Amino acid sequence: MANELDQEGLPASAPPPWTCKCEAYWLISYAAGPLPENAYAPLEAASGPFSSSEQAGQFKGGLSMIQIVRYSETPVGSYDELLIIPGFFGVPGTKDKNFRVTRIYVSQRATCYNGRKNWNIPKHLARFSFSHPPTRGTSPPETLTVDIFPPDPAEPKPFFTASLSPFRWIPSMPFSTNVFPWVGVDSTLVQPPLPASKESGEEFLCGTNLWAKTPPQLHSRRARGMWVEINENKVKKDESKASESQPLLSGKNLDDWWPKFSAWTFGVWLEQATLIFPTPEQFSSI
Known about the structure:
Blueprint: E1 18-31, H1 42-45, H2 48-51, H3 53-56, E2 59-73, E3 79-85, E4 88-90, E5 97-99, E6 103-106, H4 109-119, E7 123-125, E8 127-130, E9 144-149, E10 160-166, E11 173-176, E12 189-191, E13 211-214, E14 217-230, H5 234-237, H6 241-244, E15 266-277, E16 281-283
Parallel strand pairs: 6-7
Antiparallel strand pairs: 1-2, 1-15, 2-3, 2-4, 3-6, 4-5, 8-9, 9-10, 10-14, 11-14, 12-13, 13-16, 14-15
């Protein structure tokens, strides 16, 4: 479980495959330009094997999304997650292009450690606040507000805020990512090797040596559309210009925690979902 530690003080290993229960919200867009600024956390941005176009592959754009996931059952316990897939990336030495998670936050250390170790997912810690609990078979709220903060409990400013309003005039229906190949979308994640943090207390931000290719699968019993509003400047609108320029308690500016991302005004609300992360195919760079 999430609070178990191994002999080195790290979270206990939870090897793949993982079968998880969750509620998820997909904020969808299409990237036609360059990779957005701050698409990587500083640790990964400083790693050529993970973020440089020469070593990790060029950004190709295309279908992109933010995913917000509320896990109720996983091998490491419940947790929340925010991630961005900015589009497709080339894979060096091949003609392939695949999705890649470039930046991701989670609410507990065990999934941070195991996500990095198992699948090269560059997880970091954050705090999450939701205005309503997951629906779990009940009617969804008119609007769900999501606020995501740096991990320091003393930091009152969210770096990401969104308002999600599920469609009510169209009934929910089952959904599965098994339909993606039929519409020409390959949802396989291909992740470069991760760097490890050298900071004291961040040993759970482990590194890896091989690439990881993972085809996740999602099945939802109740999927529906939703209206999306990303309130990137919520804090700035509520504060004076003098306070806008102040850094967070962590020493970083608010904008450094998350890339600018213009999602479409509609997305997908996925209830009673099962998300499967299989054992990845690992390979060295070509």
